[in-house]
Amino acid sequence: MTQDWPRHPAEAIRSYRERGFREDRPLSGLLREQAARRGDRLALVSRSTRLTYAELDSRVDRLAHGLAALPVRAGERVLVRLPNREEYVLTLFALLRIGAVPVLALPALGPAEVESLAATAEACALVVADRHGRTDPRAEALRIAERLPHVRHVLVAGDPGDAPARSLDSLLSQDAAPRPEAARPEDLALLLLSGGTTGTPKLIPRTHADYGYNARASAQACAVDSDTVYLAVLPVAHNFTMVSPGIMGVLGAGGTVVLSPDPSPTTAFALIEQEGVTLTSLVPALVPSWLDEARRTPERPSSLRVLQVGGSRLDEVTARRIGPELGCTLQQVFGMAEGLNNYTPLDAPEEVVCTTQGRPLSPADEILIVDEDDTPVPPGVPGELLTRGPYTLRGYYRAREPDSLRFTPDGFYRTGDLVTRTPDGDLVVVGRVKDQVNRAGEKIAAVEVEEHLLALPGVRASAVVGMPDPHLGERSVAFLVAEGPAPSREEIRAAMLRRGVAPFKVPDEVRTAPALPLTGVGKVDKRRLREEAGR
């Protein structure tokens, strides 16, 4: 197969494998292994479907045979755009089993973004749901297939509608024998989407070896075992939900995965009680609604032991509420689909859990924190996080821009995250390199101001963006979501000055909003906020 992305150097791969930092089996092998060891244990719950490991493994084999008969060949890319339902897990593992490469697209993407990704990957098939909210993914997929000649198949979870689309159910061969794994550990396993909020996401290549290690090491860091019941609240195509430890880590440990059809706390709390959920993961934007639900509910979720929060920085005020109000342990997670994962230890002191975003997962993760000249900075000083390691990419798949813009010559990935490091090695996310307001030459980290705003009474959510200004270069605009009347700019200024904040960091303009717009992965969509501020 043509090499479409930079691999790790052979010497580095050999070293990682010798030290146990690469998996020696294809990803679909983890499901086969659990089916052999504990076939009668519950593996997957989705809506009314309940599958044991043996049943799940058998269905994956049947779908793998059906996909191969289409044919979908080893090495071909298949764009998968499904919500949280059992067909996602079946399709993912069936494609891995035949050596095909899933391209994991979020359901919230627009048709233009989906078409661009399908074109870049030269996808041979599109897998979509029959409906998603008010959209018709089937019709969108068929229109894309008409414009892209390499898209040979449109496959639908649910009603396929008009030909030539086909239902996934029609591919479940009834007489399929167990299928041998077609992929090798260092083969391309899947393509993830970068988490950027502007432009079309980039494609992130992950191999069976590096993604398998990522899942196993994350499961160990999060104390996942066969008794773990994991609730997938975030979109299943999100790297956080897939491998931190997510679906892959939990199934690899023999636990149970429960798919939530929506992220509402009402749905989630009911599933937690019904299924005895012990672990789940959220983005910070969802946490306040969970805390509100806990206040309204007579009994908080009794089985939940760990709530992971990641995807963006969780403010300290909210972090300190989670333990007392939800009755579970908070674990902060700071990671990226490109590789590096960081976790706060489950036994860490409250101060560490509530004020840092964790430490690197692997002993082989290499970390640099550098200034604008790529000079390392001392602990406590903000700088851009650079990283390389056994499960961090060395280059994007069919990159539209030179990899030299995001990678150093010696293979460190420029994350774009501004962080500090404590003397104990814990990372604190300060913001994004580009998430700054350059006001009259003074650099203002948006996340710092946002946390001061969240400390004000009644403020439920905040976001700060920079806007062009003829006198200041950029002015800062704060968007607030508040319970009751929002504080005025004068009140905000007085409160921030009392907290010892420099006057230039006080927002130049304050706006209120009923809610902050979110991207498909649950981050605040600052591009849309800038558009709103410019009106």
From TrEMBL:
It comes from the Bacteria. Pfam families: AMP-binding, AMP-binding_C. Residues 31-397 form the AMP-dependent synthetase/ligase domain. PROSITE patterns: AMP_BINDING (PS00455). InterPro entries: AMP-bd_C (IPR025110), AMP-bd_C_sf (IPR045851), AMP-binding_CS (IPR020845), AMP-dep_synth/lig_dom (IPR000873), ANL_N_sf (IPR042099), ATP-dep_AMP-bd_enzyme (IPR050237). Signal peptide: none annotated. Residues 448-523 form the AMP-binding enzyme C-terminal domain. This is AMP-binding protein. It comes from Nocardiopsis lambiniae.
